[in-house]
Amino acid sequence: MMYVPFARKYRPRRFSEVVGQEVPKRILLNSVRTGRLAHAYIFAGPRGTGKTTLARILTKAINCLRPLDGEPCLECENCISIEKGSFPDLIEIDAASNRGIDDIRAIRDAVSYTPIKGKYKVYILDEAHMLTKEAFNALLKTLEEPPPRTLFILCTTEYEKILPTILSRCQRLLFGKLSTNEIITHLKNICEKEGITYEESALKDIAMVSDGAMRDAVSLLEQASVYGDGKVSQEIVEEFLGIPSTEKIRDFIRLLVRSDVDFALSMLDDMLQRGFNLLRFWDLLEEEIRNLIIYKSLKDPYKVMEVEDFHREFDHVPINALLYLEKVINTARADARTRSFQRACELAIIKTLIVKDIVSISELPNYLTAKTAEEVSEKQVKEESKNLAEEFFEKAQDVLKKTEYNLLKSLSYTVEGNKLVFTVKSDDLKVLDVERIKKHFPFVEFSVVSTEEEKGLPEFAQKVKDLFGGKVIKHESKG
Predict the structure, then answer these.
(1) Which residues contact 183 (CB under 8 A, 6 or more apart)?
(2) Lower CB count within 10 Å: N or C terminus of the chain?
(3) Which residue intervals of 179-277 are DSSP H helices?
(4) How far apart are alpha carbons 51 and 175 in whole angstroms?
(5) How many CA atoms lie within 13 A of 409 on its CB side?
(6) Residue 56: what pLDDT?
């Protein structure tokens, strides 16, 4: 038996099987039920959203010998003939290749003949916007006053190119892009019927790439299942489509928001090494950032988008940081006019170094106050440290031996709280009378560093640690 591709095998056969497009479905179904059919329709919308499919279902419904509440029975002679493509009263014309005035004149001459087998003769003009102006004009009179039991359906992806004179003579039905959830649900049904093992994240990636076109999504699912030998995983979809998964794109955004430029550049280079489509990746990156901005901007984003945990992660990120990020990502395309797109993307990533430091305008006064307080605090600490050291050396000159004083002057020290801590070697302790120093200066402590030649902690250094609270740090000798 000849293999049937998924796009044809799972093409809807009744109104109820069509995914989405509730408004066109309802209008057409009610028109069939009540017998109030228009003489000409324009089905306008993006590719792969069901325009031609609904045109064929409508043809079956109005020619069915045993219709069921407006739905075709799919069992009568006419329904079977239409599905096989052998129904004499269904004329499908590709307006992209039959766009001239002579082609339309042939239709105009043939339209006067009554239906041969069905109740209605139906003309479906696909890509109707491709017709020339002269061809449209030749069709005007026929569209306005067609012969009885004749129906015209003009399908187009570029509604704005249809002449106003044509639009005024047709009933217009607008088709929208399908939602990601609608596509995923349909793909799951196909996988279950075909016995395909799938990961939901992989189906989501396919749905995202298809951009609301069900036909594209079903075709991609079929190709991915063939590539994966009956399995559709996120890894397989990544390799097959040549773009990173949604999760990787979101990881990339997390890096940019944290200004983690090193890892972001490394991730970009890895994608290029693996042969991913950089332009497509950048498109998806822009889309995800756009969704984040919408989420942050609206009081109730749930009405216009599907809010996920990923979006909630950015509740603390200022909206102006995301707006700056979007501008930087978008500017990469303009920069690509003077350099390679890869270099433009790398420059855009480097520009995100300041994203983590951006604060919202409403928080700016608090930020400046905190910054000033922090600077004042640091200044106070430095002044206190300086004062403590000056106090010690000023008094130590009269108390300590000259050798002790000179040694302490040459040592490094730190101020920890209200303690002055000198870093000394074990040998230095032979020169210093630590007990006397501690007696005169209780705020002085010693951090003793032992050498590798000494096994374990030297007894002398350990004694100093126990007596005076010095911190013994073991390090490798360079001698």
Answers:
(1) 19, 206, 207, 210, 212, 214, 217
(2) N
(3) 180-194, 200-210, 214-227, 234-241, 246-257, 261-273
(4) 7
(5) 12
(6) 93
Q: Give the tokens for residue 74.
A: 């799919």
Pairing mode, strands 413-416 and 419-425? antiparallel
Cα distance between residue 301 and residue 41, in whole Å: 35
- CA 27-151-126 angle, 5° bins: 85
Q: Of 122, 173, 172, 154, which Cα lies nearest the Cα of 18?
A: 173
Long-range contacts formed by 340-344: CB under 8 A, 24+ apart: 341/278, 341/279, 341/282, 342/268, 342/272, 342/278
Q: Which 3 state secondary structure label does DSSP give 149?
A: coil
pLDDT for position 382:
55
- pTM of the shown model: 0.67
Q: Is 257 helix (H, G, I), strand (E, B) or coil?
A: helix
Q: What are residue 155's DSSP bridge partners?
A: 43
And the tokens for 455? 């096994």
DSSP reduced 3-state for 341: helix
Contacts of 27-33 with CB under 8 Å at 24 or more apart are 27/173, 28/54, 28/57, 28/58, 28/61, 28/173, 29/61, 29/70, 29/71, 30/70, 32/58, 32/61, 32/62, 32/67, 32/70, 33/69, 33/70
DSSP state of 58: H
pLDDT mean by block of 10 residues, the chain; 479 residues:
83 91 93 91 91 93 91 92 91 83 81 86 90 85 84 91 89 91 93 91 88 90 90 86 85 92 92 87 91 89 84 88 91 89 93 81 52 53 63 79 82 77 80 81 79 44 46 38
Per-residue model confidence (pLDDT) at position 234: 85
Show the CA angle centred on residue 92, arms to residues 90 and 93, nearest 5°. Answer: 145
Task: Retrieve residue 36's tokens.
Answer: 């109030």
CA gap 114, 147 in Å, rounded: 8
Alpha-helical segments (H) within 2-100: 6-9, 22-34, 51-63, 77-84
Q: Which amino acid is at 53?
A: T
Buried/exposed code over 322-354 (b: 16+ C-beta within 10 A; e: otherwise): bebbbebbeebbeebeeeeeeebbbebbebbee
Instruction: State the residue for tokens 């979809």.
Output: 237
- CA nearest neighbour of 256 among 143, 354, 340, 167: 354
How far is Cα 257 from Cα 151, in angstroms, rounded to an integer? 56
Residue type, 268: L
The answer to whether the beta carbons of residues 183 and 50 sit under 8 Å apart is: no
